[in-house]
Amino acid sequence: MNIPNSISEVTTDWLGTALGAPVAGYELEQIGQGVGIMGDIFRVTLSYDAHAAGAPASVVVKLPSAFPENREQGVALGMFDAEVRFYRELAEKVTSGLPQIYHADILSGTAEFVIVMEDLASLDMVDQVAGMQPAQAEAAVRVLAGIHATWWNQVQDGTLDWIPSMVSERIAHVDQLFTQIFPTFAEKFESYLPPGGIDVYEGFTGRYLAINTVIAGRSPWTLAHQDFRVENMLFDTEDHNRVVVIDWQGIGRGPGAYDLAYLLGGSMDTALRRQHEQSLVGAYHDTLLDAGVTGYSLDQLADDYAHAHLMGGLATSMITGGAMDLSNERGVNLISTMASRHAAAALDHGGLERLRAIG
Asked: What is the CATH number of domain 134-358?
């Protein structure tokens, strides 16, 4: 099958081959504008030539972003290759929390990719600017712990070296990028930050690899999503324990606290996060233990979680705010909210003192 260059090349014949059913026609709707910064996402409602038992009434088609800057960053960071390979090689090991994938393909090393997945329109998406409620946050951290437990202490044997580690050359590349884009980020977003927030980002700039090295050397590694935020998941209103996680472009290998801090720091209102984060960190730890993880205490998790507020949330805010085309007002509002919340979380957990200790 060819890989479509744009949604206009997704034809009835192409869809029929991808789904293994005779597609007669379809209707398109672009979704997630301002959310899918690295990709353009479309809902495709289908009709069929003949009875097609088990064929979906609709699917979601994901293609690379229409913005050249975003595609270039996706290629440079290996994000497009990572997501397709995750779905093709690793997803079957996860017992819950993932969508059904009908087709995934990529011309490796390029932005030419396509993913056809289950349409999850019956599930609810939470606006990240509004933020998760505590019950949604608990469901999300328990799903996260289940995913992490699948690969706990199993990602350093060489078989998954194609997935970048949190101390890889990719991080050194990103460190250089942060130094270049910090002035642009500060100009655009400093006004949104809490007192001391710009100091956190300035102290973070050029130290990402050193920050990651501190925690990577002391904590168990797993497969991390690395963009585990609420707009990359959907919630079942009937089964409150069901959460489906999407957008696996940024996967990495390293301590799971990265994802936990990224989720709670950026996807909850700051006051609500402060009120509930102790119990939510405890729920994550309890779920790890229930899944068979041993040798990782709640005290160690708490310290890792505090340190991890200097990692993914700050990095994503800076790279999207300083180097990418956010495409619309919604995208700017999202990144300004993330930047502010992650700065507040880092400050709450002694981020400036931790940065000074790293030197």
From this structure: 3.90.1200
Average pLDDT of the residues of the chain: 93
Annotated domain spans of the chain: 7-118, 134-358
Residue 35 has pLDDT above 50, yes or no: no
In terms of CATH, what superfamily is 7-118?
Phosphorylase Kinase; domain 1 (3.30.200.20)
Report the range of poorest mean pLDDT among 49-53, 61-65, 293-297: 49-53
End-to-end alpha carbon distance in the chain: 52
Torsion angle in degrees (nearest 10) through CA of 121, 267, 225, 233: -10
Q: Do the domains spanning 7-118 and 134-358 agree at the CATH topology level? A: no
Give the residue from 53, 56, 55 showing the smallest Cα distance to 43.
Answer: 56
CA distance 99 to 115: 11
C-alpha closest to that of 274 among 332, 354, 194: 194
DSSP secondary structure, 333-353, as one string: HHHHHHHHHHHHHHHHTTHHH
The residue among 177, 199, 201, 163 whose CA lies nearest residue 335 is 201
pTM: 0.88
Nearest to 39 by CA among 116, 101, 120, 92: 116
Tokens of 195: 């007192």
Q: What is the pLDDT of residue 293?
A: 98
**Which one, of 310, 137, 115, lies nearest residue 211 by Cα?**
310
Q: Is the pLDDT of residue 317 over 50?
A: yes
Contacts 24+ apart (CB under 8 A), 329-333: 329/34, 330/33, 330/34, 330/35, 331/34, 331/35, 331/37, 333/34, 333/129
Q: What percent of the chain has pLDDT over 90?
A: 79
